[in-house]
Each structure stands twice: as C-alpha cells, then as structure tokens.
Amino acid sequence: MWLRLIIILALVTLAEYYTYVVVRSSLRTLSPAWRTGVIALYVILTCITWLGLFTFRYINWSILPLFIRNLYVAFTMGFVVGKLVILLFMALDDIRRFFAWLMQSFYSGGPAANIPADRKGIPRSIFLSRLALIAGGFMLSAFMYGTRNRYNYRVRRSRLKANGLPDAFRGMKIVQISDIHAGSFDNPEAVARGIRLAMEQKPDLIVVTGDLVNHRTEEVEPYKKILSSLKAPMGVYSILGNHDYGDYVHWDSDEAKAENMVRMKQVQREMGWKLLLNEHVTLERNGQSIALIGVENWGARAGFPKYGNLDQAMTGLPEKNIPFRILLSHDPSHWDAEVLEHHPEIQLTMSGHTHGMQFGVEIPGLKWSPVQYVYKNWGGLYSEHNQHLYVNRGFGFIGYPGRLGILPEITVLELT
Q: Which of these ranges, 56-60, 65-69, 190-194, 366-370, has the smallest mean pLDDT?
C-alpha cells in the first residue's frame, strides 16, 4: 500500500517537473512579458487541476450544469495523462543521455567526443522536448474530444457456437446492455436513440448486467420511460452491479440506504424488468428449456462487495432437464474465480463492469486498454474449453464523461 503510494507520488512529481521544464523551454523565443504570462497560466491550471482532484468528493457538483462538470473532468484527466506522456518522452531522453555520458567517460575520444560543435540541425534533446510537448498536447485534446463520444453507441455482434444448446434455441438473439450509470446522463434524447438502436436488433431476450445508477436510485427516475421501452419476447432480465447498492455515497441513516435499495428493486419492476437476486428462471421454447441465472454483485478484487451467491442462485435447478445455462454476473472476475473452477455446467457468463476503462485502442490486430492490467477479461468474447464469457464495454459512463477509443456498446450475441 505505502510502496504503491510512494511510486505514484514519485511519478506525479517527475511528470510535473519534466512538464514545467518542457513548457518553459518552449517559450524561450517569446518576449519576457508573454513568457511570464503563459507560465503563470500554466501554474494556475496545474493548481486548479490538483485542487479539484483532492476536493472532488467535497464539491457540490449538483449546483453546477453537467456541461461545466464534464468539461472540467475531461480537461483534468487529459492534463494529467498528457503530463505522464511528457514524462515518458523526457525520461527516455535522460536515459539516453546517461548512457551517452557513460560511453564518453569510458571511451575518451569516442563518438560523443567527435561531434562537431557547430553541426547544423536541431539537437536531439530539443527535438524530443518539442515532440513530448506535442504528444502531451495531443492527449489533452484527445480527452476533450472524447466527450463527444459518450453517446456514440456501437452495436457489437458475436456468434457463439455453444455445446449443449437445445435445438429450439438455436439462432436465439440476446441483446446485452450493461453499466447504464443513469446519474451521468445529460441528454435524454441521445439515450433514447441508444435504446431504439438496441430494439432495432430485434432481440429474443434482453439482459441488463448491472450498474443502473452511479449512487442513488433517484438518478434513473428521469430515464424510466426511455428504459421501459426495452422489450423482448422472452423478457428483460437484470442484475445488480456494485454501484446499485449505494455503497459509495454517504447516507443520513441505515434506513435511508435500505429505502434506496427497496426503490431500486421497485423501479426495475415498474420498467418491466425482472431483477434476478441470486435466483434463476427457466426459459422455454417448443418444449425445451434453458436456465438464466442471475447473481448479485460478486467481485474477486479487494474493495468490491461479494453479495452474490451462485449456489443459492442455482438451488432447485434440475441437472438433466436443463442442458444449457446462462449466468448474469456483473463483475467478470467472478468467471475466473468461481465459475471456471467450480461450475463447468455454466456454459455462458455475461458481465460488464470494466467499461474498457472508456479509453484504449481497438483496431484490427490491436486491442489494448489500461484496464487489461487489472482485469484479464475486459471486453468482448472469451472462451476456455466449453465455457464462454462475454464482457460488455458499457452503455453509459462514469468519472471521465466521454469515450476515447472504447465506444459505448450494445451487444448482440447470437447462439448457434
């Protein structure tokens, strides 16, 4: 814990130092007045950024327009990431110069000593300094631009060849939506457009895999009518995610928190969803059946609650008559920790939670996001032997009010 904190502080300090040096160096050609003004502006923005990071939880953001909050958060995150990019460039240059110094020290008269002092062109260090500044500025601009993608919904289609699937269910189309985070929304029409896009896929079954809100059930009230338009012949089923319990916000009393959970369950019934709380249902078609199992949040990582109980959820489920089982579990770490090891009879698990960190690269031949260093399975379809996991990248957003490279997702999974 302390070691991690020391490492983070060291990286932040170095990033601030290198960025200040790069900014100051880039202003050398300006007049003294302009140079002083730009440096002062940079220092003020840096102070505002860090002050906001340390006091974010204590600011009453509800009195400010969401536009202001989104703009501030996007700028802050882009500013910090941009500085880390500058740190990477400048640290590599310092390492290069260190080894060049070693060569010069051990080999007097070596290559470093024979470089003409009047050689034309930009010295390598100045070139890297300018490149670092451009890269840092690009990251800041990218994070600001990414706010435009927060409602840029994408349909992702996968076909799953599943052993044990009854003939009656072949070709069944499941639409999955996850991590709605209604408390972050500021554009009902854009959300409605995403829900219409989901319905245009003509699903047989719709599943919503947790995190309906950020903190409180009241956040979803303005979007109830929009979300209640989710309909499917085999029904709409949902589970709870870690944010749905109200664990990340202060409550005036335990009773208030309990009332919030009562309302969470009630509002999903009002929208026509069937909330599965450590329980299962059987879905029937032409005399054949499959099982849909829903557990409450269960996360393998420290800090995430383990409300889910898979054994309880499957109690009374006949082994022979139900040859195919689908599990809805919000956190994909549940698949690695419990499902793969102890429940080979569950052929398909559907999760969310990671959001793909709302930041990364997904192009042919390259799939990367920082979240992969925390979650091995973070986006898309994964398979081990005859068991499969699909991780939805999230419909909504939280924290960073945008998407950069990892767009909001509507999953269409066809069973074959």
A: 56-60
Query: 128-131: which pairs have CB atoms within 8 A and are 24 or more residues apart?
Result: 128/89, 128/90, 128/92, 128/93, 129/21, 129/22, 129/25, 129/26, 129/89, 129/90, 129/93, 130/26, 131/89
Q: Are strands 279-285 and 288-294 parallel, antiparallel or unpaired?
A: antiparallel
Please give the helix or strand (H or E) that residue 318 lies within, else none. none
**CA–CA separation, 148 and 186 (whole Å):** 12
Cβ–Cβ under 8 Å, residues 390 and 207: no
For the cut 70, the answer to whether the pLDDT of residue 44 exceeds it is yes
Region 72-92: mean pLDDT is 91
CA distance linking residue 377 with residue 385, whole number of Å: 15
- What residues have CB less than 8 Å from 24, skipping those under 6 apart? 39
Residues 6+ apart with CB under 8 A from 20: 42
Contact between residue 181 and residue 243 where contact means Cβ atoms under 8 Å apart: yes
Confidence band, pLDDT 50/70/90 cuts, at residue 118: very low
The beta strand positions in 53-125, using DSSP E, are none
What is the CA 154 to chain-centroid distance, rounded?
15
Sign of the torsion angle spanned by Cα atoms 279, 285, 286, 288:
negative
User: Do residues 247 and 279 touch, judged by C-beta distance below 8 A?
Assistant: no
Separation CA 233–CA 227 (nearest Å): 16
